């Protein structure tokens, strides 16, 4: 009976079977095993089993020629099959040839090597094995043939040349080895090849030949194209020196210096050249070589050169020579600094200081010109402040050290033309230039310089110096004109007004001086008005103009009610010495006290009362003193809140306040406060008496 089922039914049956089996095989014990095996352990065991030695194959003993031929046939078939499978694997060819060589089948081995060379003639190992086989079997001509083919096919493989020359030398064929070397040199190989050739000739006492070949090697064309290295020149020169050809060695060094020139200078070449001359006792030549190199090589690349030069001077030089080395070293250091940052003016100052101490004028001027050429890129005065001192030092050097007035004048004029006077100026430069012209007795040029400075860029300092100059020359009319220009430029400058008035006072023109003071105090804006008013008042006092002085004080008090003005006014009335001066002085104090009642600055009011009390103690009666004492304030400690800048509370602080009797009489709150304090004091005394009654009884008995 056949049962027909669909594919879907069969699939469901299989799935149900698998589920039932998985349920049947479900692991109940899920605890870990006692012995755990990790993946690391499995890998380690596998590695250890790899190292186990397999049993060697059984040795087969060949007893007759037929077995040998059979063995050879099988092995050759195996090698040929390997080669046929992959012809490019050269190791199969080499194994095949070496097996044939072991059977003394040299012809077969040669055939295999030749077949391999047809496959890959660029394989270096193949050529080496081929040639070694021929040499091992004393087939010299065959080996020469192979080496010739190798160096012809691959001339840039140095190993072939080394092996070939070594074989010829071992065979005693010196001429043949030399011929191989000459063929090799035509290819211009690496340096070691040339050294090998030179050492080969030296081994056979052919000193002249290596000289010729080395000279050929070191000709400019070969050096530039193949090995443009300093060490090759040095080696050749030392070779000549070693064989006592000192003149030739010197020529080699000189030619090397000429060849490299200034663009490719190397300190090692000059150190070697200097040491050679030192060995020849040519100390002056050594010094010239070191200085020549140091002047042309940067300090960063001449550390070894400096070191050897210092050692040389310590051994053979004098103190002056050692100092020159130190100066040269510092000079190179400064050169590197200014090259790295040309606008580092501090480095320029140090460099110029060094050059000025030990150099000729032309060298110093050259450095100054290089320094001043580095103009600040931004026209802002703060960037020019250090730079301008380069010009100042340059001018002072020309005047004081070089003694050249004309160049000094040119330096000053060039610096003044360079400064952008429309944006800023340096009064120091104008003043130094004017003073220089005065020292040269060129008064007209000095005046022209100062006048130009005032016209282009007026400054207070320039006016003051120009006025001082004219005062020393007793040119008072010029001084008046300068003061007028000065006051037009800065009318708020009280010092200028005072100096101008003092000048007129010295000249005896009192009215003119008084007019100047009147103009000054009428200015809408002044930088130090108190100084100006004091000077004007002192001027009138000196002129004994009491009424004018009194009027000045009144005019000043209309502008300010400062306590010092009142005190000064009172002292003036006291010192006038006229009749009724004490009464006028007391009247001023009373007026000041009334005026300052509304003043918020209580310390100033206290200062006035203290001054008044001092006056009454010296000149007043007892009633006057008592009257002032009654006006003295009471010092009270108070507290107030403190706030920070952002408005938040910062706690409380204590301060002292002054309560004047006149203010207390007008304010009933203050009187109430005083009565409250008195009541509190009485209550406190009463409490103290209640707490200590025994003490009161004892005191009454006593």
- Number of H/I helices: 38
In total, the number of strands is 2
Unreliable runs: 1-5, 210-225, 693-702
Strand content: under 5%
**Taking all residues together, what is the mean pLDDT?**
79
Reported for the largest beta sheet, the result is: 2 strands, antiparallel
- Oligomerization: single chain
Give the distance, in angstroms, between the N- and C-terminal Cα atoms. Answer: 152 Å
Instruction: Going across the biggest sheet, name each strand in turn.
Output: 1-2
Radius of gyration: 57 Å
Which secondary-structure class do the elements indicate?
A: mainly alpha
Shape: elongated
Description:
- This protein is mainly α and 702 residues long.
- It has a domain of 35 residues.
- The protein has 38 helices and 2 strands.
- Strands 1-2 form a two-stranded antiparallel sheet.
- The radius of gyration is 57 Å and the shape is elongated.
- It starts with 6 loop residues before the first helix and ends with a helix.
- The N terminus and C terminus are likely disordered.
- It holds the Pfam family HAT_Syf1_CNRKL1_C.
- This is Crooked neck-like protein 1.
């Amino acid at each position: 009976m056949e049962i027909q089922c669909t594919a879907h039914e069969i699939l469901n049956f299989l799935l149900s079977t698998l589920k039932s089996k998985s349920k049947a095989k479900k692991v109940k014990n899920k605890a870990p095993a006692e012995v755990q095996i990790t993946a690391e352990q499995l890998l380690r065991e596998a590695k250890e089993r790899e190292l186990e030695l397999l049993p060697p194959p059984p040795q087969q003993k060949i007893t007759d020629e037929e077995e040998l031929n059979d063995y050879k046939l099988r092995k050759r078939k195996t090698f040929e099959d390997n080669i046929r499978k992959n012809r490019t694997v050269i190791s199969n060819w080499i194994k095949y040839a070496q097996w044939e060589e072991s059977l003394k089948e040299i012809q077969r081995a040669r055939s295999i090597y030749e077949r391999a060379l047809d496959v890959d003639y660029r394989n270096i190992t193949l050529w080496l094995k081929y040639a070694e086989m021929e040499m091992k079997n004393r087939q010299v001509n065959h080996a020469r043939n192979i080496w010739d083919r190798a160096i012809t096919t691959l001339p840039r493989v140095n190993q072939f040349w080394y092996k070939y020359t070594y074989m010829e030398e071992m065979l005693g064929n010196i001429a043949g080895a030399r011929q191989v070397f000459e063929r090799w040199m035509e290819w211009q190989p690496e340096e070691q090849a040339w050294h090998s050739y030179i050492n080969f000739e030296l081994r056979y006492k052919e000193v002249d030949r290596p000289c010729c070949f080395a000279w050929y090697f070191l000709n400019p064309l070969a050096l530039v194209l193949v090995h443009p290295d300093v060490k090759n020149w040095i080696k050749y020169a030392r070779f000549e020196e070693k064989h006592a050809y000192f003149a030739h060695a010197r020529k080699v060094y000189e030619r090397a210096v000429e060849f490299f020139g200034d663009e490719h200078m190397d300190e090692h070449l000059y150190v070697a050249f200097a040491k050679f001359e030192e060995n020849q006792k040519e100390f002056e030549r050594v010094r010239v070589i070191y200085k020549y190199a140091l002047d042309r090589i940067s300090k960063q690349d001449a550390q070894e050169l400096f070191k050897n030069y210092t050692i040389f001077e310590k051994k053979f030089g004098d103190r002056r020579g050692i100092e020159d080395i130190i100066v040269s070293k510092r000079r190179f250091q400064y050169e590197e600094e200014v090259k790295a940052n040309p606008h580092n003016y501090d480095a320029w100052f140090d460099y110029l200081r060094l050059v000025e101490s030990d150099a000729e004028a032309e060298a110093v001027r050259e450095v100054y010109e290089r320094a001043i050429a580095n103009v600040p890129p931004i026209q802002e005065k703060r960037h020019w402040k250090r730079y301008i001192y380069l010009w100042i030092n340059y001018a002072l050097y020309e005047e004081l050290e070089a003694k050249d007035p004309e160049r000094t004048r040119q330096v000053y004029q060039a610096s003044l033309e360079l400064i952008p006077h429309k944006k800023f100026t340096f009064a120091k430069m104008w003043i130094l230039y004017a003073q220089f012209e005065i020292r040269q007795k060129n008064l007209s040029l000095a005046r022209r310089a100062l006048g130009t400075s005032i016209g282009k860029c007026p400054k207070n300092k320039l006016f003051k110096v120009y006025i001082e100059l004219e005062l020393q020359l007793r040119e008072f009319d010029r001084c008046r004109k300068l003061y007028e220009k000065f006051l037009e430029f800065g009318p708020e400058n009280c010092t200028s007004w005072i100096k101008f008035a003092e000048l007129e006072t010295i000249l005896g023109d009192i009215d003119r001086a008084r007019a100047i003071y009147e103009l000054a105090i009428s200015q809408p804006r002044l930088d130090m008005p108190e100084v100006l008013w004091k000077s004007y008042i002192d001027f009138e006092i000196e002129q004994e103009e009491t009424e004018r002085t009194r009027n000045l004080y009144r005019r000043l008090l209309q502008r300010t009610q400062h306590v010092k003005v009142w005190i000064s006014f009172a002292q003036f009335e006291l010192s006038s010495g006229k009749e009724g001066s004490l009464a006028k002085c007391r009247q001023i104090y009373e007026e000041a006290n009334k005026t300052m009642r509304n003043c918020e600055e209580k310390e100033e009011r206290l200062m006035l009362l203290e001054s008044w009390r001092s006056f009454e103690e010296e000149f007043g009666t007892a009633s006057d003193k008592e009257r002032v004492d009654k006006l003295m304030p009471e010092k009270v400690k108070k507290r107030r809140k403190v706030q920070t800048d952002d408005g938040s509370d910062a706690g409380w602080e204590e301060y002292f306040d002054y309560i004047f009797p006149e203010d207390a009489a007008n304010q009933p709150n203050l009187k109430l406060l005083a009565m409250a304090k008195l009541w509190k004091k009485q209550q406190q005394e009463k409490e103290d008496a209640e707490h200590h009654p025994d003490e009161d009884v004892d005191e009454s008995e006593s």
